[in-house]
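Researcher: Quick test of sequence recovery. Tokens follow.
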């Protein structure tokens, strides 16, 4: 099973609704096990991440006003793939881990940029 990253909007009652993923976009934010082993890992936390570690315990809602800080966090993680990949166990091989980590972070970043453009939020679940 994989984690999905989606754009969401809230209605007047505060209820959220996930928007369709545009054609050609990937909504994978990594494997379900990454909640703890990657996004909630000590390596990610040591870099100062505060949004993605939430996934270790719950789904992550990033509201529209938090998106600039969230995008900075994603950029910080993208700048440190070796540290993160070196401390994770799956998939096998550090090169494969770096590749999959980079892919997941690109998907998260692309989704956050779509949300930012439309005044929406990001949900990783």
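Model:
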């Amino acid at each position: 099973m994989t984690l999905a990253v989606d754009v969401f909007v809230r209605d007047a009652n505060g209820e959220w609704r996930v928007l369709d993923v545009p054609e050609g976009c990937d909504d994978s934010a990594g494997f379900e096990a990454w909640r703890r082993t990657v996004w909630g890992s000590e390596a990610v936390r040591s870099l100062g991440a505060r949004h993605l570690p939430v996934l270790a315990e719950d789904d992550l809602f990033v509201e529209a006003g938090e998106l600039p800080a969230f995008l900075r966090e994603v950029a910080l993680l993208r700048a440190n793939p070796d540290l993160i990949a070196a401390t994770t166990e799956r998939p096998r091989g550090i090169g494969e881990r770096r590749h999959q980590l980079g892919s997941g972070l690109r998907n998260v970043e692309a989704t956050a940029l779509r949300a930012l453009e439309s005044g929406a939020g990001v949900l990783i679940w």
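The two ends are 11 Å apart (CA to CA).
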